[in-house]
Design brief:
By secondary structure, this protein is α+β, with helices and mostly antiparallel strands. The protein folds into 2 domains: 211 residues, ApbE-like domains (T-fold), CATH 3.10.520.10; 97 residues, T-fold, CATH 1.10.3980. The chain has 8 helices and 19 strands. The longest helix has 22 residues. The structure holds adenosine monophosphate (AMP) and magnesium ion. Adenosine monophosphate binds next to α6. Magnesium ion (MG) binds next to β11 and α6.
């Protein structure tokens, strides 16, 4: 059965050769509050189609587990039990939280899923009249923010927030994590190439000898234009930007990524793109870089081969890790198959 909200389309159908037959299946669906697009290629059309369906199911499953917009998600249960009791969670939730904590440690707390205790103060939903919270309100909420206080018991499989009012939100890593799970469903014999995108996050899979994926990076200063193009084979790319969700109060913009140290929206970076082996990592670091800014961000970014970043600051200046500058091709062509929005 096709869900009502599903926008479904087949991108290119089948491509037949005389001896070599390759099928491409592409579908898009609105999930996790964003457009999720999955494309895969392989010899057996039925197999590829089944795998794409399974990949979408993985995204839905992750969303059910870690969305804070769902009352019945495991993450919402952790939040409701703050100050009361540890909550038993699935291995995926435990893993997403543990990875978040690792990025918190490496980013000096710029990335912090407990930022959500500030949540109601800054309202980016547009549902309530926007206002800048008083300093005292922010200070009171900040007492409940702190990644070091999140208690994860791996052997018991539980997560505990020790104080009422503490809250977790995995919005900065959830899409990347879901993209990884979806890609795992596609990385099977019979699938030769695959690309999963969810809003600003994507991950590619390419078997040796197959064509790389070519993606475009949108300019955060001029949204009608590309910063450049990039070829990727088996990597993930994620972007974050304050322009994606913000409120305007008395002519000033306040973006949705908060600095957990001040309790106020992070400033100074227009957009950040991170390339990494896995999408959760690219996703988390792209958000962290918005908070850290270019200098500190590039300094703290982990440096194993393959992790790269491009940060566009508020003045429109580029800051890139050395390995990235040469990979971005400056002449964007109109034929870029996937626009990747920065
Ligand atoms: P992204 O689009 O991946 O950059 O994620 C942005 C979302 O991350 C926001 O809408 C918040 O839900 C959440 N968030 C905001 N500030 C932080 C922060 N400092 N650390 C972790 N998550 C955050
Ligand atoms: Mg992110």
């Amino acid at each position: 059965m096709i869900p009502r909200f599903k926008i479904l389309f087949l991108i290119v159908g089948l491509i037949f050769g005389v001896h070599c037959r390759s099928a491409r299946v592409g579908q898009a669906e609105t999930l996790m509050g964003t457009l999720v697009e999955i494309t895969a290629e392989g010899r057996d059309h039925k197999l590829v189609e089944a795998r794409v369906a399974l990949a979408f199911e993985e995204v839905r499953r992750v969303d059910r587990l870690i969305s804070t917009f769902r009352e019945d998600s495991e993450l919402s249960r952790i939040n409701r039990a703050a100050g009361v009791a540890p909550v038993q969670v699935s291995p995926e939730v435990l893993e997403a939280i543990e990875r978040s904590l690792e990025v918190s440690r490496l980013s000096d707390g710029a990335f912090d899923i407990s930022y959500a205790a500030l949540g109601g103060l800054w309202d980016f939903s547009g549902e309530k009249p926007a206002r800048v919270p008083e300093a005292a309100e922010i200070a009171a909420r900040l007492k409940r923010v702190g990644w070091r206080r999140i208690q994860v018991d791996r052997s018991a499989g539980t997560v505990f927030l020790p104080e009422a009012g503490m809250r977790l939100d995995l919005g900065a890593i959830a899409k990347g994590y879901a993209v990884d799970r979806a890609l795992a469903a596609l990385k099977v014999p019979g699938v030769d190439r695959a690309l999963v995108t969810a809003g600003g996050d994507l991950r590619a899979f390419t078997r040796p000898g197959e064509k790389p994926w070519r993606i475009g990076i949108q300019d955060p200063a001029r949204r009608d234009r590309l910063l450049g193009e990039l070829e990727i084979q088996n990597q993930a790319v994620a972007t974050s930007g304050q322009y994606e969700r913000f409120v305007e109060i008395q002519g000033r913009r306040y973006g949705h990524i908060l600095d957990p140290r001040t309790g106020r929206p992070a400033e100074g970076v227009l957009g950040a793109t991170v390339i990494a082996g896995e999408a959760w990592e690219a996703d988390a670091w792209a958000t962290a870089l918005l908070v850290l800014g270019p200098e500190q961000g590039i300094k703290l970014l982990p440096s194993p081969p393959g992790i790269e970043a491009l940060i566009v600051d508020a003045k429109g200046r580029w800051h890139a890790t050395p390995g990235l500058a040469g990979r971005i091709q400056p002449a964007p062509s109109p034929s870029v198959p996937f626009l990747f929005r920065l």
